[in-house]
C-alpha cells in the first residue's frame, strides 16, 4: 500500500474532517434486491481449499448444495460430514476444472448459497476493543480476503464495503480469508458515506489512513470505539470519504520504503487498535 494509498492527503493531520451529519434511520443504503454484485448469475458461491470449505461447512448460516472432493480432502476436514451430505467423489484433475485456473483446491470444492445480507446497525456493538474496518473501493479479492483474515484475528466488529466497488463473495476471496469469511460480519452498502455517518452516530471515531497525513495513527487513536478507513492502493480514499472521517493519520513507515500493501496496512492498523 503506497503512502498515498492509505488515503488522500489531508493537511489537517488528525483534525476533524467534516461534520458527522444527521442520524440515519435506515440501514446504510442497503439494496432491496440483496447483495447485488456479491452474487453470480447462478446465485451460487463456489468455495475451495480446506480452511475455506471447512469453515463454510461449520457455519450454521450457510446453505450447502454440493461438495466435490477427493477421499484425502474429506479426511483432512475437522469433523465428519453428515451421512446424507451430497458428496461427489472426484480426482484432482476433475476438481481443477471446477475452480479458477491453478487454484489450490486441496481436494475440496463446495457449492453453496451466498451468505445473507447483514445490516450495519445489527453488528455495531460500540465495544472499544472491537474496531470496524471500512474499505473504500478496494477491489482485489486477495486483498479483501487477507484484510478479513486480519480483522477476524484481531476481533474486529465487522468489515464494511460498498456494494458496487468491492469484490463479490467468491472462492478466491474465501481462500485468502482462510475461514474468516464465515465468522466476520461483512456489511455491503450502497452508499459508503452514509454508512460512515451511521458508524459515527453509533459512537465510533472514524480514522482515515493516508500516508501523507502529518499525524500518526498512534496519536489519532481514541480510547473509545474506532473505525479504520482504508482506500484503494494508489488513489487512496475518495474526497467525500475523507470528509466523512473525524481524523486522518498515517502509519510511520521508513522512508526507505515507499509503499505498503493495503492488507498489510490494515493488519498493522488493527494491531495498533488492539494494543492501545
UniProtKB/TrEMBL annotation:
Residue ranges with Basic residues bias: 19-33
GO biological process: methylation; RNA processing
GO molecular function: RNA binding; RNA methyltransferase activity
GO cellular component assignments: cytosol
Region (Disordered): 1-46
RNA 2-O ribose methyltransferase substrate binding domain span: 46-118
Keyword Lipid biosynthesis listed: no
Keyword Transferase annotated: yes
InterPro entries: Alpha/beta_knot_MTases, Ribosomal_eL30-like_sf, rRNA_MeTrfase_TrmH, SpoU_MeTrfase, SpoU_subst-bd, tRNA_m1G_MTases_N
Gene3D superfamilies per the UniProt record, alphabetical: 3.30.1330.30, 3.40.1280.10
Keywords: Methyltransferase, Transferase
Start-end of Polar residues biased regions: 1-12
Name of the protein this chain belongs to: RNA methyltransferase
Organism encoding this protein: Novosphingobium aureum
Amino acid at each position: 500500500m503506497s503512502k498515498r494509498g492509505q488515503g488522500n492527503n489531508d493537511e489537517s493531520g488528525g483534525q476533524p474532517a467534516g461534520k458527522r451529519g444527521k442520524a440515519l434511520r435506515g440501514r446504510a443504503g442497503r439494496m432491496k434486491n440483496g447483495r447485488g454484485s456479491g452474487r453470480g448469475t447462478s446465485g451460487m458461491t463456489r468455495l475451495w481449499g480446506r480452511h475455506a470449505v471447512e469453515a463454510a461447512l461449520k457455519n450454521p448460516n450457510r446453505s450447502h448444495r454440493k461438495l466435490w472432493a477427493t477421499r484425502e480432502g474429506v479426511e483432512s476436514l475437522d469433523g465428519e460430514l453428515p451421512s446424507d451430505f451430497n458428496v461427489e467423489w472426484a480426482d484432482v484433475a476433475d476438481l481443477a476444472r471446477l475452480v479458477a485456473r491453478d487454484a489450490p483446491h486441496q481436494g475440496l470444492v463446495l457449492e453453496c448459497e451466498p451468505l445473507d445480507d447483514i445490516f450495519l446497525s445489527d453488528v455495531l456493538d460500540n465495544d472499544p476493543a472491537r474496531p470496524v474496518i471500512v474499505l473504500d473501493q478496494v477491489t482485489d479479492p486477495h486483498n479483501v480476503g487477507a484484510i478479513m483474515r486480519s480483522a477476524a484475528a484481531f476481533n474486529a466488529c465487522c468489515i464494511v464495503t460498498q456494494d458496487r466497488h468491492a469484490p463479490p463473495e467468491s472462492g478466491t476471496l474465501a481462500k485468502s480469508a482462510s475461514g474468516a469469511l464465515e465468522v466476520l460480519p461483512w456489511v455491503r452498502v450502497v452508499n459508503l458515506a452514509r454508512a460512515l455517518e451511521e458508524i459515527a452516530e453509533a459512537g465510533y471515531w472514524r480514522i482515515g489512513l493516508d500516508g501523507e497525513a502529518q499525524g500518526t495513527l498512534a496519536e489519532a487513536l481514541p480510547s473509545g470505539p474506532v473505525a479504520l478507513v482504508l482506500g484503494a492502493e494508489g488513489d487512496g480514499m475518495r474526497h467525500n470519504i475523507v470528509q466523512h472521517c473525524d481524523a486522518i493519520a498515517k502509519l510511520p513507515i521508513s522512508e526507505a520504503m515507499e509503499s505498503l500493501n493495503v492488507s498489510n496496512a490494515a493488519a498493522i492498523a488493527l494491531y495498533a487498535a488492539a494494543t492501545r
